[in-house]
Amino acid sequence: MSVLSASEIKDLGKVAVLFGGRSAEREISILSGTGVLQALQSKGVDAHAFDPAERSLGELAAEKFDRAFIALHGRYGEDGSLQGALEQLGIPYTGSGVMASSVGMDKITTKIVWLANGVSTPKYAVIDDGTDLDKVVAELGLPLIVKAPLEGSSIGITKVTRREELQAAVDLSRKYDARVLAEQFIEGREFSVPLLGTGPTARALPIIEIVAPEGKYDYQNKYFTDDTKYHCPAPLDADLTAAIQREVEKAYRALGCEGWSRIDVLLRESDQQFFLLEVNTSPGMTTHSLVPMAARAEGTSYEDLCVEILRSASLKIGKGKA
């Protein structure tokens, strides 16, 4: 990534760093946004904090912001709703557009698109009112994973090892979403692959292996402990590394993602088959976050990464993209 001159930094204009928001991931968004804001300001960018939970989006236009760096996670920031508002306001923003953000936020719809494009992802079932839970267990086997399909940061997720645990897991996920995603459990190693770019120029960054205490990469171990270990680049042979990177690039393009994202991957221990789990179209930017880690492995500092992402801010509607 190239270092910008003072004039190029100035051309970025007045920037709103959007963080906080109203989702269940507000706490993490504040950590991400604070880091991004400080990084941009350290590079001379005219960047300002903006919390949509406390201020009207109309103020973005009234205060003549030229660009928006989205550091919001979850609903109202990562699901396409904010992206649509910024399109209406005519303010270029980082990351994916309305459609890709909306689809990527929904783990069920993401799976449908990926499977239609031949992307490897675990078998799944959708649980709603009237679903026969015995049939779900018969189709997916045990253990299985139960998720809230519209949440991130491991919120509302349960590993179910016995049939009698399933209803409680579904009830937990239903605190967040009406529909629930049940997914085949993959026993093996856990990885995450950040991506940068748009369309044919999009590329995967170095793969990160995640080794969490007792294999439990939950909310606490993601953000608030130092017990989780990360290996970047992941210790994989060259052919497998290339295959995983090609698959995540294919998955990224299938969803129409732009700017940057992160895709989580599992490598089954028994046969070395990999499976893509989900995409995060507004990845975390905390001190524990994975996109900055992968960028550092390529020699790019956190500050330069933030500037590079900001440079990619754009309006998507009207240029042939949803």
TrEMBL record:
Belongs to the D-alanine--D-alanine ligase family. Its cofactor is Mg(2+); Mn(2+). Its EC number is 6.3.2.4. The gene is ddl. GO terms for molecular function: D-alanine-D-alanine ligase activity. Cell wall formation. The lineage of its organism: Bacteria, Pseudomonadati, Pseudomonadota, Betaproteobacteria, Burkholderiales. Pathway: Cell wall biogenesis; peptidoglycan biosynthesis. This is D-alanine--D-alanine ligase. Residues 111-311 form the ATP-grasp domain. Keywords: ATP-binding, Cell shape, Cell wall biogenesis/degradation, Cytoplasm, Ligase, Nucleotide-binding, Peptidoglycan synthesis.
